[in-house]
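TA notes, week 10

Several of you asked for a full example with nothing omitted. So below is the full record: structure tokens for the whole chain, then the designed sequence directly under it. When grading your own attempts, check the secondary structure regions first.
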């Protein structure tokens, strides 16, 4: 983590703004709040910086395990990277203990705009550890964690300056989801992200906008809709159909970091910006290659209007180093005169 943010004078603008203020700004502009989802491995600093260049108002880190974050300097340094001018950032914790979450919140508070409790990850390993979607059946525990995180922020002098939020999935019986929301709201959750799939619903199945709309109508705090946001028009349509205050994109932003700026496919300059950010905040080469491969497009996702041709994409997946990747991108740029 970067001590410059703790010791270096004024708080950077991105960290100074309260997330709820961002909701107010988006509402004043008559649009939803645009956010990027917490994605395992992929929501690293360079990617967060890139999407922030193209209209994302609020970014999420990947889920970080609070217990390991508390106990290991190596875990803190490898799991979370920031900079002296970060975009507004929510750090998502995987936690099942109020004490562990409070301690982790105190450690991270100077570096982020808020913390988020993951109650949505459907992966079996997470649920086996009573993390992620398993917490949807432990609403009182989640409420206790919200209370503990809020108290930790207050103790560190951040009361009213940073948020505690919860990201959920829906139950098959929406009455359970309604009870969950009521409980975490009463505990002080500042806003809620609603993924419109149950724990067992495959990502290939459409998100339930009806479920999101029903749950959003019951809340007294701002809400975000998560799921199936692949274009700016889909973001606007989901907002209109569900009545939420903002939307969260995952796979759509991987394919097109400029999604919320209105680009219908990834522009070349988004690749360049991402690569420039990677140089300053390195991530493993295979992750860099995956990001660029996603941005290069696929005939499935972009119906022939891909950033790279099929031949260029075949060459892309065969590169073995950053130097080879940069050389290939420079070659393509030269040929296209971009």
């Amino acid at each position: 983590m970067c001590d410059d943010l703790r010791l270096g004078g004024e708080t950077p603008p991105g960290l100074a703004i309260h997330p709820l203020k961002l909701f107010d700004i988006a509402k004043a502009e008559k649009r939803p709040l645009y956010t990027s989802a917490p994605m395992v491995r992929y929501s690293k600093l360079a990617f967060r910086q890139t999407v922030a260049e193209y209209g994302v108002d609020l970014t999420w880190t990947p889920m970080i395990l609070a217990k390991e974050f508390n106990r290991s300097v190596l875990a803190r340094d490898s799991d979370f990277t920031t900079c002296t001018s970060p975009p507004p950032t929510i750090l998502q914790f995987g936690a099942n203990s109020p004490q562990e979450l409070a301690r982790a919140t105190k450690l991270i508070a100077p570096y982020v705009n808020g913390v988020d409790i993951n109650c949505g990850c459907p992966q079996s390993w997470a649920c086996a550890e009573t993390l992620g979607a398993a917490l949807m059946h432990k609403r009182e525990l989640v409420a206790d964690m919200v209370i503990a995180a809020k108290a930790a922020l207050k103790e560190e002098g951040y009361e009213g300056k940073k948020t505690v939020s919860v990201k959920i999935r829906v139950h098959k019986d929406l009455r359970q989801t309604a009870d969950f929301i009521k409980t975490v709201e009463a505990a002080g959750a500042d806003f809620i992200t609603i993924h419109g799939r149950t724990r067992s619903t495959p990502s290939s199945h459409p998100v339930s906008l009806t479920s999101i709309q029903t749950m959003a109508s019951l809340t007294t705090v701002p809400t975000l809709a998560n799921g199936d946001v692949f274009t700016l028009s889909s973001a606007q349509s989901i907002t209109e159909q569900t009545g939420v205050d903002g939307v969260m994109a995952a796979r759509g932003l991987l394919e097109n970091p400029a999604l919320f700026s209105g680009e219908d496919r990834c522009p070349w300059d988004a690749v360049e910006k991402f690569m420039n950010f990677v140089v300053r905040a390195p991530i493993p080469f295979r992750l860099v290659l995956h990001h660029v491969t996603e941005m290069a497009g696929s005939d499935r996702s972009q119906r022939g209007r891909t950033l790279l041709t099929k031949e260029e994409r075949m060459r892309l997946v065969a590169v073995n180093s950053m130097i080879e990747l940069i050389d290939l991108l420079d070659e393509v740029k030269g040929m296209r005169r971009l």
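Confidence is low (pLDDT under 50) at residues 2-8. Use that as a sanity check on your answer.
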